[in-house]
Protein 1
Amino acid sequence: MTNAQRADSAGMPLDVNVLIGPYPYRYVPHPDPDVLVRVLAREGLRGAWVGHLPSAFYRDPTPGNAALFAALEPHRAVLAPAPCIRPDWPRWDRALRDAVEQGAVAIRAYPPQWGMGPHDRSLQALAAAIGEISSILLLTVRFEDLRQRGNLDVAGDLDAATIRATVRSAPNTRVVVTAAGREMIEQVHWGLTPDERARLWWDISWIWGPPDDHLAHLFRTLGAERFVYGTQWPMRLTQTPRANLDLLPDDLRDARLADAGEIELR
Amino acid sequence: MTAVSAGSAPRATPLAGGEPLIDVHAHFLHVGTGRSDWDAPNAARFRAGERIGISVLVASTLGSWGFTSPTYFPSPVDVTAGNTAMLELQEREGDRVRIYAAVNPNDTGHAIAEIERCVAGGAVGVKLAASRRADDPLLDPICELAAEHGLPILHHIWQHRRREWPAQEASDGLELGRLAERHPSVSFILAHIGGGGDYAHTYVAVSELPNVYLDLSGSGVDRGMLDGALEAVGAQRLLWGCDVTIETGLAKLRALDVIGLGADAISDIRWRNAMRIFPAGSFPSVARAAERVAR
């Protein structure tokens, strides 16, 4: 992105929760980078951290990461790759280094899909390694509502205990968690020390708005600065988080989310 | 980079524009639902509704919402209390709230009496949730009464049902379709397109049943869902609504704007289809607004 483009897009959100590629359990319309670029422009988003959706379900994510970097290459001004690294796979540390050298903005990990619980040593080693190279760990609570999943999709949601243990285990690592709801967010946030909370952000893609006003409640209790913009395209309508922000009560009209670009620079 | 602003849209004008907008799937709480803050979600629904520009909320309450009997299996006492609270709300709110008579078909006699009582009080539809499977013969007398009064039936529907869900006897599109075939003169509103994920199952199940309408409410915001609904049943069988997540209702309105629908089709979904299937005179404020536009 040029300096002029950066100036033009100042204030436009950056979407941390975007994927490309097909979903294994049902049809998802055109999950392609060129479509994504048009959607971002239409929705007033300046860019996105982009993962490779099928890689979450691969045993070996290496080919998925290669496909991700290749697919994003023509669009790198707005689409930043967020490949996934599986820490119980041989030479994962080398794969991590390579990914960062190729321009990974964040590293995705999928503990439920890989059968990793709260005290998995390999997950903690990955989290620590990500901190050592000043990258960001990106976790996903869910791709779909538990009630709507296909019968082959048995991994379950990422649990609060795993997030807490991971954040605690890697004191230099910034963590962004996507697709969490209010209950999960509160169980993690209030189960961490202030220093630990300060390294953790949540995207707003799955937080309910009115009439229960979970987003407003979380802004008032945790602070809007703990949240970042996320849509979970191509699984979900990109219009949802903006609609949620537009429906916040008047006392929160000046609330400001954290900007993912600032998290990158910390 | 500047941090992202929360509510950056201008607040003076409705977010969804000034054209009439009927939410066919709203809910309210009441004092008997066991929450000390029961009024807060109600106030939030009105606040968000005004911000969006919702003209009328067609609403129900499901008994005590689980406080003194289960949400989806409400006792007769709770059904009556919930409907009474809704009748009072409708009386208080004037044109902006219309209500469904919510009933449990297992107490068939009570359900029939309750529909009659609520219709006398101004109810414009019947709400069935998940107390009994949609194709069960116990629902027939309720449908016959709905036909007699010209009332649509909003039925809670979940996607392709391969198993039982806890705390409810949910139905899917096929099961509602069987009921709709038995009662062709009744309009059935299939709630929240049956939910996300397996929504395609719903489309095939009801696409050829002209008396089944899909409401767009619910937390499911799967990409492809709206396009599929349009393709399956057309804009004249879609109804806009929110259910318990109003932000997703607004998101879907905005999505309809970008998937290539014409103004007429959008008007059908926003309010015209509802005007057609609810009893005449149900929405006087919308009728007045439509007359102003026509002039």
Protein 2
Amino acid sequence: MDRAFFEQLAMPLFDQLYNHACWLTGDRADAEDLVQETYAKALKGFGSFAEGTNLRAWLFRILRNAFLNSRSGLKQKTEYLEDEERGADEGVAHEVTPEALFLASESQDAIFSALERLPVAHREIILLCDVDEMSYREISQVLDVPAGTVMSRLARARTNLRKELGAGTKEAVR
Amino acid sequence: MTSCSQDRNALAAYLDGELPADQERSLQEHLRTCPACAARVASLVSLRRAMKPAATRFVPSAEFRRKVQGRVAPKRSVGSRWMWPAAVAALAVMVLAVVWTRQSSLSDHAFREVADLHVSDLASANPYDVVSSDRHTVKPWFQGRIPFAFNLPEFAGSEFTLLGGRLVYLRQQPAAQLIVGAGKHKISVLITQESSLGSGLPFFGGVAVRDSFNVETWEKNGLRFYVIGDAEQGAIQRLAQALQGVNG
């Protein structure tokens, strides 16, 4: 195992992993623990990491597993299950109009707090896709689910986010 | 407004750049003629753009980056930095310095091995050979596995919990590694025979901070103890005192 090689590949992802960990845990100290654990595990397993595979997806996956095994993650684990159980028939009735969405995107605070209110499974997938700009394929590697699940979960997550944003703006207007 | 039958997932996939080329073309055609879908796409684009600041909302501190970087980076020798003031000093000082440097590199080696054992244990999927919070289970387990004996304090009712132990090798000599939990932190206690590490006094008493680990070490009756972890100094010290108390 080449530590210098690992450092060269993995350290550029440090900021991204830390930011993601903060979004997951909502706590900087917990996020630091997670990132630290991620790097320790990745360093240890780097020998078995096949070159040519996606290092970013691999690191995010280690981080995610560490999160799910952490104290704050365990609490959220049920949310993942619930998300899978919920049907795909999201009511269109709750859909927010494009106009309202435009309005909501004007406010960064509104977006951040809507993201924070999402269940962690939804927050996570939206961040991976829209913020970390991962492909569906990468996301399916991180979450260890088929690509079809990525699409459907992403759709549910976005519907949910729009709902939260709509709720936020209504409150603001009142 | 919602009369269009266009699949919404396809719109999203289009924006994510995940639509096959032929479908992408036909969707672009459709957007030109369907104001409802076009408005929808526009609002999704603006929402996504507005989400970008989430990427840099949380920035790690420089201190934390150094900490992780320090653990990831290849180990570099620190000897030469200490050597040069000795080189310009008088001969007597130089002789002393040489002796001192030898000892410090010896202790440096010992420390790194101890730190490696600690970190690799934390990262391991099977961190313990013997899993128990009971010192009466853990201590006897080592009998016949290590050529010496040690005592463990009673952890019940203290801030510490015994998590387990494993047999490791420090300088090609068997050593007992005990993992002790202190809040969220894990502390390693390593016990080995002193002769195996030579006479280099690895540390000069008290808790030392090395690579952001807190370490305490001492020698008693031919046994060398190391207590290492990222728990606060006070916790390391209290654990060390508890161990010293029963191994006097």
Protein 3
Amino acid sequence: MKDKEQNRHVYWNPYFGGFLLGILIIFTFFVTGRGLGASGAMKSSVVTIVEDISPKHAEQNAYYSKFLKDDKSPMNSWLVFETLGILIGAFISGGLSGRIGWRVQHSPKITRRRRLIFAFSGGILFGIGAQIARGCTSGAALSGMAVLSTGGFITMLAIFGTGYLVAYFFRKNWI
Amino acid sequence: MGPLIPNELIPFEWSSIIAIIIGICFGFILEASGFSSSRKLAGVFYGYDFAVFKVFFTAAVVSLIGLFYMDYLGYVDMSMLYIHPTYTWAAIIGGAIMGIGFVTGGFCPGTTLTAVAIGKIDAIVNVLGIMFGVFVFSELFTFFEPIYNGYFQGNITLVDTLGINPYWFVFIMTLVAIIMFAVSDVIRKRVKKVFY
């Protein structure tokens, strides 16, 4: 138990993690013909919530209506099940390493409140960006790169390139 | 032979079950690699931790090499795989917005889910933010539509765009990745350590 407490910041070797992730992507393409994803399930949730609150509005909106089908809920999709799996898998890994617990992780130089405000605004940007590019780091960049998709490579370069460009302005939050 | 489900070698009914199993592996790998920590993720932008970079590019290179070998040996038909479509400016602008979101929020949608699973409150707030962002995008869809649907080039690959031999490209990309890994280690040694 004490070992667990001390070692909870010890993670896998990144090359080992990357190798297994690569194998998983191959397996996913081999079985399903498509790649991994993460933001798709959040989009399905938003579409479902909006449809529950105001079905008429969802039908009239050109974007929500793309994902609404008469016989099938948007939650009944491959990506939603995969996302449930992500939560389970991460919970198992975190549990085995003693990393589970309610907390806000932030640099000691900033307040909890500041961290939460930035986490929320960063989320908004990511949500908008992932819709414009039709996928996030997993769906567009990683899965796109695995099949040499031009769009996947452009998205990856744009994410990391812009990240480095703006990192200077947000340095107080992290270092 | 592959892909198995589109070729009906595995009945379609199994796809939800397979989705959960693949998701479990994905979540486990991300969490065990440390991607549930926003401070570890942000390290890639400040040079104190290159785990994101190493995991991401190792995965990209391994999956490229693996898929090309399986295509060559006839286990998977690459022309049947789903290729992420290319909308040039949507990819650039969307990616740029995501880049800013990554540095501000410290997570991307996959990693934030792994952090939610182990109880990080900042990650829960981040997911709410992402959902709000999707809502904003959908409500303003008419405004975003020209960029969302414009500059469509089809489901093209770098082979179509650059006219290169894919095998050489993968080989060179692997070499570049290895060199970049070495460079990242040098940078990390020179940057002030951050403990988190």
Protein 4
Amino acid sequence: MRKVPVVLAAALAVSLAGCTLTEGDSDTGSGGKKVVLVTHDSWAAPKDLLDEFKNDTGITIDVRKVGDAGALTNQLVLTKDDPIGDIAFGVDNTFASRALEENVFAAYRSPDADKGAQRYQVDDSGRLTAIDTGDVCLNIDPAAFAAKRVPEPKTYADLTKTEYRDMLVVEDPATSSPGLAFLLGTIASLGEDGWREYWVALKGVGMKVVSGWEEAYTQDFSGSSGQGDRPIVVSYASSPAAEVGKDGKPATKALLDTCFRQVEYAGVLNGAKDPDSARKVLDFLLSEKFQAAVPESMYVYPARSGVELPKAWQQAAPQPKSSATLPPADIQQNRERWIDEWRGLVQG
Amino acid sequence: MGLTVEGLTVRYGSLAAVSDVDLAVADGSVVALLGPSGCGKSTLLRAVAGLEPPAAGRVCWDGADLAGVPVHRREFGLVFQDGQLFPHRDVAGNVAFGLGMRGVPRASARERVAELLDLVGLAGYEARRSTELSGGEQQRVALARALAPRPRLLLLDEPLSALDRALREQLALDLARVLTGTTALVVTHDHDEAFTLADHVAVMRAGRIVQTGPPTKVWREPADEETARFLGCGAFVPATVHNGVATCELGAVELPWAPPGEAVLGLRPTALRPAVTGVKGDVVQRVHRRDHVRLRVRLEDGHEVDAVAGVLDVADTVTLALDPDGVALISRRERPSGRGRPSSR
Amino acid sequence: MPLGFLAVFFVWPVVAILRLGLGEGGVLTVLASPETWRLVAFTVGQAAASTAVALVAGLPVAFLLARTSLPGLGFVRVVILVPFVLPTVVVGLAFRTLLPDGGAFAIVLANSFFNVAVVARTVAGLWSHLDRRAPDAARSLGASPLRAFTSVTLPALAPAIGSAAAVVFLFCATSFGVVLILGGSRLRTLETEIYLRTVELLDLSGAAALSLLQLAAVVAALSVGAVARRRRESALRLRAPASVARRPSGGEWVVVGVALAVVGSLMLPIVVLVSRSLAGGLAGYRALGSTGYAGSLQVSGVDAALNSVRAATDATFLAVTLGALASVVLVSLSRSRVRRGFVETMDTALMLPLGVSAVTVGFGYLITLNLLPGDLRTSPVLVPLAQALVVTPLVIRLLLPVLRSIDSRLRQAAASLGASPLRVWREVDVPLAGRSLLTAIAFGYVVALGEFGATSFLARPDTATLPVAIARLLSRPGELNNQMAYAACTLLILVTIAAVAIVESVRVPGRAAVGEF
């Protein structure tokens, strides 16, 4: 007898909660089409650009963030038979190979794909289109070196010198995406044999390993607001753009000879509900306006050529000319082994 | 007509707590259900209230079966041993609870609460917190709460046994006054309480009712030796009744109400008192009570018996005679297990 | 109904993802690896140590809350809940500041930091209703205050302590963020390893093997807790709290001092981050009205706060409704003489979500919920549902003991006075358990406000909550972003204190309510 009202109350509760929570969805309706863009946590885009796109095409982009690049890729793989969206953005060159092997993406070559993005293409299938690149490089705090009267380091090799003892903080490649990129950078630059010796040497001069970028950059690095005690950190080529002081000069500097290039791709998902609209969204991501906005909104460099960087970037965070890179298939094949070996060398 | 219970059986698993019980509570009468703890009397009460489903039999009010009527529609008031006042309501809130359930308007409810608090001797207690009351006060509030909605039948489950002795006696008298004219079923293990409160007593043992009748009748003539024991008889002697006088080896006693014939006398501790003539014996133990002395006396034939004496009777040797108020008579319908001699516990 | 919810939103996804993992084979390899057992040992060890620290720190606070009447206790009651809402990344960073080379020690401290409130409030709930006369009697028999405590009070509190310990152990065993930040890939637990294997490596068989181990550990912990609970929920003579609280005297001041020291150290990480928010003056706070340096956020900090409150209200409403329903069902079952074993099994089953990795459940959703109408897999509706999974067991732990302690004859008295079964609930159970319900709402609200995992996966950029915004700000370079992140933390703390204070200030009808658990 007491069950009936109880069930009614519960049903009411669920529907009420449902209502208040889903009302966010309803304002996107108004008759237009909707494309679900699955992406990683770092996605950001100026709202006026998205609104303009909606006005021009009638397509609302519904953004679903699902974690970091790895989480994104793996969730796409897990749901490939019934995808959680229509288009994905953020699978990078360290995970691209897995996504391609698992046939997550459908082929689509955007008309704008040959305006620079083709430089980063993974294969000829046209399933993944490069949207932006991010370069993981060592960042330094020039003021600290000036104060210590030690010359600023420039290359990988410099860091193993004893004068840079206890100055470097890096992220653990097992738990951090820039940490992994930096490890890959040393492998790409120093070769399968050289990287191991190099890391042993780094360990020898008091390198500090932390779990994530937040700890390394905002706490241990002396050049950021955290004012830690280590003047060298693994971060991005773009980071100095955010550390421009009141005098208009950047307080930090990226070492452009120590960079590894992460390329972020987008692709239309196999099984997308509205592939045509999804393709239009991909075109939009490659459009000049969107490409011009990626530096400030996501701290990355546009994949399209000839897009001018923001003023502050031109001086503080120019794009590295020669970043190291590795074929996605190699990364896919060796990632676990490299991380395990790294653990053995550095933490064993 | 009131309450009738026919062939009622209540089971807990395989155990029959109440078996095949018949009981009637006439409109306006108070019936006490008397028995030792564990005899099933509370279970019977709960079954009447609708709190226990019967395995067999019927509970009827004015002839109508109550089987499909849930507790809250039976209009039977219920008073527990320890009050069970709502701790989150004040006294008035407790008493008014049943009125609220029946949709009695506020103003008349307030009047009724005052009336009942007055009845139970707690006038002006409305705003007291129920958790601050003494045990006796809690019980009075519980009674007022149960009576407030004018129940058809009031069920009281050991209403006084949680209280201390002096309080119990006082409240028993008050309760008897309050219950006058009410239809009520009182469960108790205390025969004093039963006889104080009830017009009619039903003695229960091991799930069955073994005797019913007016209090005096049950007190004087228990149905069997077991019942007599429960009603305070510690020793039993065979006797013969002739012309309203029962004669046994301890002497003769006038019982004008006793039917003639072979019988067994049940002796309560007060059955023997010092007298001028009677059986002689030596006092082996004495215990002083408020207004009397309890004696243990070894008779000349070597048996020991209980007796009471006045405080000043301090001799070591006494002569004892039977007191009619201290004996019960068990008719020889069944043979007592007595061995022909005064048998002691 | 709660069981149906549990089946659809917990059992089904978890079983599905485990089956997928087990289907791949290789489970035995993982189970046979010594590395795996080191993980188990560290997980159980750090959880046990964290639980012990939380107990040692929580008991004096419980004494303070339950047995003393000092000014400002209301504030202490509220403020100890604050650690619950702080994003783990923030707490992790704060502990790194305080203990630069902490390692396992820092992990244990950080985990207990989150859970002192659980111990303090759970134990205080029972303690404040214990009769003061039992320890007094022990004292009169010659026991020292300490002896009276260990021989009389502690055994009486043991059930509450056991229950709190079980919950805390579960929280610590499955703690994720702080372990990752403070332990990196060197100090790993089952939880972080399951996360890495599932999310980054898609090694579902390895994750499944570890999940099974985790499940086994959790069931073991729950069984221990259930045994302790069984003892408690027997007849306890509860008293109104007012009659047991008094001004501390003599040696009790020492305990009060310790309790205040604990509360003080709980505040320490909070002070660290508030001071960081002020490091650059008020720039961070001014920025809260904006969307951060160069538009790092898509909503302003203030909007994020509003989003937080809105989302937490929904989630709390749902979770408390479900938790209360589950408690009602459980207590109705035990009242209606259903076999005890069945009720206890259900009780334990409802606790399981606390002990299973969120990522296991989350990835389970991906492969199951598309089969339901409406494809909830990436819907924001999942956020309150996922939070309900966590809050429901808490609500049950808070409500059930009180509901069980209500004398059935009290309910029968109400029924005999004409109250229908539903009315009996309204007139008896609800008022008596009201205090506990409020505590449950407060806890639920705090958990929901601080929720990060599910929210960060499922919230749209324009509906970002404060914890999501804080994490976002911290993940970007730039001084202003950093200051704004810490300012947002301060805002989150204020919102939390305000929300809890409002919930706790609701007057329960009737001043003598027995429950507060």
